[in-house]
Amino acid sequence: MTTISDFSPNGDTMAENRKVEDVFDDTYKEKEGPKPPRQIVWRNVVLMALLHTGALYGLTITPSASILTLLWTVVCFLISALGVTAGAHRLWSHRSYKASLPLRIFLAFGNSMAFQNDIFEWARDHRVHHKFSETDADPHNALRGFFFSHIGWLLVRKHPDVIEKGRKLDVSDLKADPVVMFQKKHYKMSVLLVCFGVPMFVPWYLWGESLWVGYFVPGLLRYCAVLNATWLVNSAAHMWGMRPYDLTINPRENRFVALSAIGEGFHNYHHTFPYDYSTSEFGHKLNFTTFFIDGMHSLGLARECKQASKEVVMARIQRTGKGSHKSG
């Protein structure tokens, strides 16, 4: 593990002060005057309505699924969730650790199974979210309400500032990764095969489950569950919970989100120390993603996992958080 422990005079780490694309930019000012009108993307509205209707139907037929199919649904949930949390988020958005080629291929596979935009777009938008959090340039600005930050931001055109700031980000590292660019080039086909085809056909081929159940349970229901677990990080974890590390920012520590999003709910910590591969100071506690990355590290597939030192965390708690908070 790589522990970040160098201090600057104001108590931050050198890593926090570096001009990187996931550090909050307090020089950005929202434009004065009326906000641009919301433009509803009706295609997305219809698709999301159909998806959630299909997922609800999948929930009703879950009792008819075999035990093996239910276990397969959990496996698909974890693979697709890891494609987002360990992959698009911690690896490609924040560069909080380095991954070998086999691990990057597996995470890209999981990311396609999650179907939340390709890695390149996901990481770019997430860097914009961190750099301009809770402003007009934030793709899912939580100050616009729970519905907008949860799903509404996908149902309307992006604010012009989101597009402008996204174009100005340095994404050369993403462009230099052949796995990222291969997935980007073949994204639609990979989603068709991996998000819907694999979850549906594996139980049909291996243990005789019906294609109908395979499509609606490990397919649509699992896909919808992963989507909403991820969206809760943008919505609930920006609204409800404690802020022990930095009281000046909106993101919170939310245990329910940590559980549902396999470790991504320690959000006040994450926005305070975005370079930390664990997104938490509590190790594997409610954090399956950290458990997974540590496992990959022990196998030699992950390396240079960055982590905030105990001294850095305590200094930040005293300076901007609840000084009485007991660090883990």
Any descriptors?
single chain; 328 residues; mainly alpha; two-stranded parallel sheet; 15 helices; globular; transmembrane; FA_desaturase_dom; oxidoreductase; FADS-1_CS
Structure description:
The chain is mostly helical. It has one domain (37-320). The chain is built from 15 helices and 4 strands. It has helices at 14-17, 42-60, 67-93, 101-114, 119-131, 146-150, 160-168, 172-175, 178-185, 187-207, 211-234, 255-260, 267-272, 288-298, 310-320; strands at 2-4, 98-99, 302-303, 306-308. The chain is globular. The protein starts with a strand and ends in an 8-residue tail after the last helix. Residues 5-19 have low confidence and may be disordered.
Number of helices: 15
Structural class: mainly alpha
Please state the overall shape, judged from the principal axes of the Cα atoms: globular
The end-to-end distance, rounded to whole angstroms, is 17 Å
How is this fold's topology laid out?
Elements: E1 2-4, H1 14-17, H2 42-60, H3 67-93, E2 98-99, H4 101-114, H5 119-131, H6 146-150, H7 160-168, H8 172-175, H9 178-185, H10 187-207, H11 211-234, H12 255-260, H13 267-272, H14 288-298, E3 302-303, E4 306-308, H15 310-320
Parallel strand pairs: 1-4
Antiparallel strand pairs: 2-3
Helix pairs in contact: 2-11, 3-4, 3-5, 3-10, 3-11, 4-10, 10-11
